[in-house]
Amino acid sequence: xxxxxxxxxxxxxxxxxxxxxxxxxxxxxxxxxxxxxxxxxxxxxxxxxxxxxxxxxxxxxxxxxxxxxxxxxxxxxxxxxxxxxxxxxxxxxxxxxxxxxxxxxxxxxxxxxxxxxxxxxxxxxxxxxxxxxxxxxxxxxxxxxxxxxxxxxxxxxxxxxxxxxxxxxxxxxxxxxxxxxxxxxxxxx
Length: 189
Hints:
Blueprint: E1 2-8, H1 14-20, E2 25-27, H2 28-38, H3 40-49, H4 61-70, H5 73-96, E3 102-106, E4 121-126, H6 129-138, H7 144-152, H8 157-163, E5 166-169, H9 174-188
Parallel strand pairs: 1-3, 1-4, 2-3, 4-5
Helix pairs in contact: 2-5, 3-5, 4-5
């Protein structure tokens, strides 16, 4: 099985690129959203650690955002609780797809949380900063301060680029992404 890890800046289009490969994708953001909606145990753990902020189930992302904005250390507490469950779900995904030729890992903190293996093929999604800003501003609940807190816990872009085996230029057209994916698959398969 070839494991492909997708790297890039927040808002660069990593999830879009991941889906375009046409292989099973583990999307950590979707898994976190699912936890917030359905996992009462995660809710209870977060409520215990952050009683001032986490009140309702399903977990309201606004409550989580407020906790992070008020105190940066809260982000670490949230990650610690949520990350364990995401790793469990990743292991289930890997077992379920063990006979697939390729799987895609769309995990924002892939390198930072040491989830990648040395053999993983890492692909950096490169997008112009101006395009990223435009896309992010269209997102519901976009918050520049929150974005900065998340960027602060990530490795610098240059480091991620250096660690990558390939770079896909994403100018938000199907052609640029599809061409990049086709070239990569031709090299690794």
